[in-house]
């Protein structure tokens, strides 16, 4: 399916199937994530693949018991890496690195969907707690957790704002 067609559909899984995601698909998703454009091509982000049972359980709690976090077979945490970019971006480092991490997550999201998976963006987490779970570096901030897997129940898109309400020609 064309990407322009794919992204018109809902991406969100209300619930995930417990079917394992093939390693080859996870590899493609991560490759997609690190292929994203980034400010000054610094790739100032880290991606944590959360595999251990203990880390997964703690992540579930840190996301206020979001069931999709418990059920998704793949959890990726995208963090901004401020240390990597501070010399380049000065006082705007947090903005640039958070954007880099979000763009990387978006690429992962699109690749996951093109592989027939659902991928949920989750930002409703306790930021310091998720950083502790992955043992993140001192200069990292958590941007988005992505829960990926085969959908059991797909989300229903609520509708979109009209183009005229969003786009401004200047
Ligand atoms: C940056 C970002 C953060 C989000 N955080 C959450 C979240 O914490 N919890 C949640 O249930 N959904 C979260 N979502 C998912 C949106 O609610 C979801 O994309 C929305 O339901 C629309 O999905 P669809 O248009 O693909 O159907 C987040 C989405 C984005 C882009």
Give a topology summary.
Layout: H1 3-6, E1 13-16, H2 23-34, E2 45-49, H3 53-62, H4 67-71, E3 74-81, H5 82-89, H6 93-114, E4 118-122, H7 127-133, E5 140-149, E6 151-154, H8 163-166
Antiparallel strand pairs: 1-6, 2-3, 3-5, 4-5
Helix pairs in contact: 2-6, 3-7, 5-6
The structure holds flavin mononucleotide.
Describe the structure.
The chain is an alpha+beta fold. The chain contains eight helices and six strands, in the order αβαβααβααβαββα. The chain has helices at residues 3-6, 23-34, 53-62, 67-71, 82-89, 93-114, 127-133, 163-166; strands at 13-16, 45-49, 74-81, 118-122, 140-149, 151-154. A four-stranded antiparallel beta sheet has the order 2-3-5-4, sandwiched between helices. A two-stranded antiparallel ribbon has the order 1-6. Helix 2 runs antiparallel to helix 6 and helix 3 packs antiparallel against helix 7. The longest helix has 22 residues, at 93-114. The radius of gyration is 16 Å and the shape is globular. The mean pLDDT is 96. The structure holds flavin mononucleotide (FMN). Residues 10-12, 120-124, 144, 155, 157 line the site of flavin mononucleotide (FMN).
- Which CATH class? Alpha Beta
- Silhouette: globular
In total, the number of strands is 6
Strand content: 15-25%
What do the pLDDT scores average to? Answer: 96
Topology-level CATH name: NADH Oxidase
**Radius of gyration over all CA atoms, rounded:** 16 Å
Q: Distance between termini?
A: 34 Å
Annotated CATH architecture = 3-Layer(aba) Sandwich
Please, what is the CATH homologous superfamily? Answer: NADH Oxidase
Order of helices and strands: HEHEHHEHHEHEEH
Helix amount: 40-55%
Number of helices: 8
Tally of domains:
1
Bound molecules: flavin mononucleotide
Low-pLDDT segments: none
Largest sheet, spatial ordering of strands: 2-3-5-4
């Amino acid at each position: 399916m064309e990407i322009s067609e794919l992204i018109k559909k809902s991406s969100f899984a209300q619930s995930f199937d417990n079917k394992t995601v093939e390693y080859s698909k996870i590899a493609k998703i991560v490759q997609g994530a690190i292929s994203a454009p980034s400010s000054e091509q610094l790739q100032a982000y880290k991606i944590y693949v959360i595999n251990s049972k203990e880390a997964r359980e703690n992540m579930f709690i840190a996301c206020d018991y979001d069931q999709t976090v418990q059920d998704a077979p793949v959890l990726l945490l995208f963090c901004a890496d401020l240390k990597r970019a501070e010399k380049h971006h000065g006082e705007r480092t947090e903005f640039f690195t958070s954007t880099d991490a979000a763009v990387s997550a978006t690429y992962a999201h699109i690749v996951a969907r093109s592989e027939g998976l659902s991928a949920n963006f989750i930002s409703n987490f306790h930021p310091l707690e998720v950083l502790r779970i992955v043992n993140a570096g001192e200069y990292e901030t958590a941007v988005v957790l992505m829960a990926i897997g085969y959908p059991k129940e797909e989300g229903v898109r609520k509708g979109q704002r009209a183009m005229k309400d969003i786009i401004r020609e200047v």
